[in-house]
Specification:
Length: 123
């Protein structure tokens, strides 16, 4: 399965790439909105991990652009937002899940499996 990890923090992006590859995912990294724009619609992603503080991206409003470009890919937000209102805003904007930074790897991995479960196991 292919994942797009759009994360501004280079060390976190590298950590995510390493751990996700250990879980047998193919990972494409982006650290800015411009880098995401360079991926065409022919790039197929099974999941997008998206940092709400990505440079050149207007936060949760950018979700609609991601979803129009890759409509089949669920989007999980990575956010420093600790308030319930901020998390609700992200979910209402179309995110399939949101995880607050800092997070435990085991929780993120479990959430990724949960979001991907419908694609992995047909019901």
């Amino acid at each position: 399965m292919r994942l797009l990890v759009a994360e501004a923090d280079a060390s976190l992006a590298e950590f995510l790439q390493t751990r996700l590859q250990q879980e047998h995912f193919a990972v494409q990294l982006a650290s800015t909105g411009d880098q995401i724009s360079k991926f065409g619609e022919k790039n197929v992603f099974d999941l997008i991990l998206f940092d709400l503080n990505l440079p050149g991206v207007p936060g949760a409003d950018y979700l609609r652009q991601l979803q129009s470009r890759w409509p089949e890919a669920p989007v999980m937000l990575l956010s420093p937002a600790s308030s319930v209102e901020e998390r609700v805003k992200g979910l209402d904007a179309g995110a399939d899940d949101i995880i607050v930074k800092p997070f435990a790897w085991s929780e993120l991995a479990a959430r990724i499996r949960a979001v991907l479960r419908p694609a992995i196991v047909p019901r």
